[in-house]
Each structure stands twice: as structure tokens, then as C-alpha cells.
Amino acid sequence: MTALRWTVSDGLTLVGRELARLRGAPGQIVTLLLFPAVMVLLFGYVFGSAIRVPGGGDYREYLMPGLFAMVTFTAVHGVMVRMAGDASRGVMDRFRSMPTARLAVPFGQTGADALGGLIFVAVMAAAGLAVGWRPHRGLLPTLGAFALIMLLRYALSWAGVHVGLAVGDERAVDNLAPLMLPVTMISNAFVPTDGMPAWLRFVADWNPVSALTAACRQLFGNPGGPAGNGPWPLEHPVTAVLLWSAALLAVFVPLSVRTFLRRGR
User: In whole angstroms, what is the distance from residue 231 CA to residue 247 CA?
Assistant: First the structure.
């Protein structure tokens, strides 16, 4: 229990450090507040006039779960850049020289990202409500959908911590940003997968972005939910997201701690 309290205390201190760094970067705050609204308006009105929703319905209601899933996955890049930047500037060496818990540094980074993610998702939800999106299944399923979004984002942030520490070069990590685009686009986030070639549809159906999108559509009661004859991740999307999150945490939490300690040797 003493070790746990030590880890939590040090981790919360480092969460405060990350939030203080955000307060000192007003440009990032503006981006955090404006980018979700821009995404909703851009995709909602540009794609909305050209894409037909399977089974009918409003495209912006079909779109919003996909946007929530997309920003969940693209957020991992920010964690990678921050961790690589701290590693390249020697900040991690300083942390390792201090009497801090081993989990505190990655815990602080992932905790700060989760708090920032709450703001990001809240702004995006407000923008969605402004353009006509609505959850239809009541309070508890809606809260469950947002809980899934934040859980998977938190699990992915640990992957970002590991990659950022392993690469240790801010520029090199920044060059990985284009790789995020295929992961989010080859999915059911923006368009139905029915028209894709068979091999590409298989990839899209088993993409965790598709599972999170389908889970949100199901819990929000938006168009495009499970149809009863699709692949397992899309017919049981909530379970699929929980399994993806558990697997990511089981793999990347110990890897992140080990990489953090090894960089100091």
C-alpha cells in the first residue's frame, strides 16, 4: 500500500506538470478547443451531402461515433511526441535520478492525456449537438459510450509512451504522424465498408477503430449499428473494445516501464 500511494502521489505530481506545460502553450489550448468543432463541421457537411447511410438516417448522426473513434486513435501521436521530446532533452534522465516511483512518469503522461482527452471529447460532443447529432438510448448507455472512448484512449496512450521512449527523437516520432491516417480511414468510421474490396473490408472490419465506432453507434442509438450478420467485432463491439483495451494495457504498461528504466542504463 505504501508503494501504491507513492506511485499515485508521484504520478499526480507529474500530471500537474503536464497540465502546467499545457497552460504555458496557449496555441495548444486553442487547437484543443477549435479542432473538434472544425472536424465536425468539415466532415459533417462535406461528406454529408455525398454519402448514404446504410438503412437510412442522418449522416451526421452516423458520423459522430466515427469522429470520436478517430480522435481517440490520433491522440496517441501527441503522447509519442511529448515523451520523445522529454527523452531527447534529457528530462527523463533527470526523472530517473530522482526518488520517484517507476510507474510515476508514464502514469503522469497518460493521466494528463486522459484529462486533456475529456475536454477534447466534450468540445466535440458539443459541436455534434450543435449540428444535429443526438444520443437516443438514454443517460447510462451514453455514459457507457464515452467511458469506452476514454478507456481505449487511455490504453492507447500507453502505447504512445512506449513508442516515444523507444524512439527518443521528437522529429522521428513526428514523422510517424501520416501512419495514423490509414488506421483511421480504413474503417467504418466515415463510410460503410460494404463497397470495399473483400481483403480491404476484412482489414476494416477487424480494425479497432471500427469496433469503437460500432460500439458508440450501438450505445448512442445512432444509424449504422450492428446489423446481425457481420464479423464478430462489429456484432459484439463493446466486448471487442474492452478486449482491445485490456490487451493494450497488458502489453504496453510493462513495456513502457521497462523502456523508461532501460534508457537510463
Answer: 20
Which alpha helices (DSSP H) does 24-58 contain, by range? Answer: 26-46
pLDDT tens sequence across 238-257:
999 999 999 999 999 999 88
Domain count, the chain: 1
Gap between the Cα atoms of 209 and 206, Å rounded? 8
Distance CA 213, CA 217 (A): 6
Residue span of the structural domain in which 78 resides:
11-262
- pLDDT, tens digit (0-9, with 9 covering 90-100), for 107-152: 888 888 888 888 888 988 988 898 889 999 999 999 999 999 999 9
Scan for cell 472512448, then name that residue: 149
Classify residue 181: in a domain, yes or no. yes
Domain assignment present for residue 229? The answer is yes
The answer to whether 119 and 202 have CB atoms below 8 angstroms apart is no
- State the Cα–Cα distance between residues 112 and 106, nearest whole angstrom: 10
Does 6 reside within a domain? no
CA 123 to each of CA 28, 61, 71, 136, 265: distance values in angstroms, whole numbers, following the listed order: 14, 16, 12, 19, 42
4 lies in a domain? no
Among residues 229, 207, 225, the alpha carbon closest in space to that of 216 is found at: 225
